[in-house]
Amino acid sequence: MTTQEILEIIKQKFPEEQFEIKTNIGGDILISPPKVLRDLCFFLRDDERLSFDSLMNLSGVDLADGEKKKLEDGTFEILGGHLATVYHLYSMKHNHKLTIKVLLPKENPVVPSVERVWRAADWHEREAYDMFGIIFEGHHNLKRILLPDDWDGYPLRKDYKVQEFYHGMKVPY
Amino acid sequence: MAELKTDHIVLNMGPQHPSTHGVLRLEVVLDGEVVVDVIPHIGYLHRCFEKHAEAMTYPQVIPYTDRMDYLSSMYNNFGYVEAVERLMNIEVPERVKYIRVIMGEFQRIANHLVAIGTFGIDIGAFTPFLYCFRDRERILDLFEMTCGARLLYNYMWIGGLSHDLPPDFIPKAKEFLKDFKKSIKELNDLLSFNKIFIERTANIGILLPDTAINYGCSGPVLRGSGVKWDLRKNDPYSIYDRFDWEVVVGKGEMGTVGDCWDRYMVRVKEMEQSCRIIEQALDQIPDGDVTSAIPKRVKPPVGEIYFRVESPKGELGYHIISDGSPNPFRVKVRAPSFVNLQILPIISRGYLVADIVANLGSLDIVLGEIDR
After folding, report:
1. Which stretches of chain A sit within 8 Å of chain B by CB?
2. I need a surface site. Which of A156, B204, B230, B236 has the fewest CB within 10 A?
3. Where are the domains of chain A?
């Protein structure tokens, strides 16, 4: 099933929501609004025609599309713009794929957690929180996973600046 | 007499523990000797591969991929270069495809030998480990002969390979395959059907197929639960559809489907299947230039791709976003061990503390890949 056909099925279920398809080299991407995401994912998993039973991957992305502001020390910060989460779904039954992208404002990056839908999302979401500061609403244990709990900042954001000291140890070397 | 109150004990296992396969810390909650919960703490080996990758050009990322799952570096290269090639729409020569498959399958055997050997050590059998490493050494010799490195190869490049096969590679590889069949028999006699080993692994850590799929398990962990699922067959990439081989699944011969023994046995049988693939590939391999399709400048067009391969440990995925510059905008790695480790608490609850070691060994994790 192509992304377009999948979208037709989704539209019947969610007639009021705005979905969009972006063409892309590695397969089309479905852009979804954040607030409907969890219901959408439950639908995608449980609908007989779609049955997306596995979540292959979940990535956080910093789109860095905000206003770039140069700082005095040569570094920069990005004001505004978007973060995104990308979900790669696969149906082992029907052998089709779907990529969903959700854009989140950088000031308030909150997205519903899909951990209840696919348990595989648990650590992926914690990693995206750890690296990008994306808040997954409804996650049962949203803590840092790879970095120490008391680390400052979110390293994979494009304007990340590493902290000077961590518990008295100099960090940038 | 008032009812006797008992508390749970929290036991700390790792980060430096011989059976945690690296620097993994497990917080084990115990009720007597029975496991109530296991909480894995990871990140001790984190070096932010994904941030590094954003500062590198595409070819410069390849050596970093070597260092993720350092026991199957070839396959990490394989996944990454294929992903970038798809993004750039490069068609590689036939010979390159064959050599990649041969190297990938040799790497699978080498990886499984380590997995099996260390699993044996975890359970208390030291001798099979030495036998496994003896055989693995010969595969590493083959790799060294080809690209000069024994562990971190940087062998597969975008559009080709760094070196062609040396002239005596094919005879030596065939000789190895011939001897290796005897080694598998030896391994089965020594470990697989050993009474003590079966007692320690059969009916332990049973993973149900539905749980495995929902938790995103892949590779031998998923197949051990009886799910016939292998990306080389079900979502074929490269030239895997040209070979005649079978997907091995756990059948519960010694206990229940999805127990530690099944996961172990899937690896043993997979090595036989890898031998089959290599034999066919060695016979069919065409001549050609392995460097002819390597692009001078690697600058993929704007776009993104998620590409996955069946690495020895499971589904290894690369999500690469290109903004049209020579550096990747974002590289996210879906590491099989990272996802497979999530299952550990589920399969350990209710078993004894000694079974955690068996469960962990049967998952075959590498911390370099989990922490990246």
Report:
1. 24-27, 29, 53-57, 59-62, 86, 88, 92, 95, 99, 118-120, 122-124, 131, 144-148, 155-156, 160
2. B236
3. 3-170
Flag if B43 and A145 touch (Cβ within 8 Å): yes
Please report, for chain B, the start and end positions of each structural domain, with discontinuous segments joined by +: 48-340
pLDDT score of B2 more than 70 = no
Q: Which residue, among A65, A88, A146, would best test binding to B if mutated, counting the most B CBs under 10 Å from its CB?
A: A146
Mean pLDDT of chain A: 85
> Are A82 and A107 spatial neighbours (Cβ–Cβ below 8 Å)?
no
Cα separation, B197 vs B212, in Å, equals: 24
Query: A94: which residues sit within 8 A by CB, 6+ positions away?
Result: A1, A49, A50, A51
| Cβ pair B338:A123 closer than 8 A | yes
- For the stretch B147-182, pLDDT in tens is 888 888 888 888 888 888 888 988 999 899 999 888
C-alpha torsion angle, residues A91, B274, B87, A114 (rounded to 10):
30
Residue of B nearest to A159 (CA): B51
Beta-carbon separation of A56 and B216 below 8 A: yes
Q: What is the 3-state secondary structure (H, E, C) of B154-201?
A: CCEECCEECCCCCCCHHHHHHHHHHHHHHHHHHHHHHHHCCHHHHHHH
Q: Which position has the token pair 């011969």?
A: B253
Chain B hits for A120, Cβ within 8 Å: 214-216, 339, 342
The residue behind tokens 């005897």 is B182
Higher pLDDT, B215 or A19: B215
**The CATH number of domain B48-340, selected from 3.40.50.2000, 1.10.357.10, 3.20.20.80, 1.10.645.10:** 1.10.645.10
Please give the CATH number for the structural domain made up of A3-170.
3.30.460.80
Nearest to B96 by CA among B178, B26, B4, B164: B164
Tokens at A125, concatenated:
């979401």
Across chain A, where does the E strand assignment appear? 20-22, 29-32, 54-62, 67-70, 76-79, 82-91, 96-105, 110-112, 135-137, 165-166, 169-170
Residues sharing a CB contact under 8 Å with residue B60, sequence separation 6 or more, in sequence order? none
Residue B199 pLDDT greater than 60, yes or no = yes
Cα→Cα distances B127→B121, B138, B164, B201, Å: 8, 18, 36, 17
At B234-278, the pLDDT tens digits run: 888 888 888 888 888 888 888 888 888 888 899 999 999 999 999
Which among A56, A92, A118 has the least Cβ separation from residue B334?
A56
Kindly report the nearest CA distance between residue B335 and chain A, in angstroms: 9
Size of interface A-B (CB pairs under 8 A): 90
From chain A, the residues in CB contact with B42 under 8 A are 145-146
Q: Which amino acid is at B309?
A: V
Please state the pTM of the whole predicted model.
Answer: 0.88
Length of chain A: 173
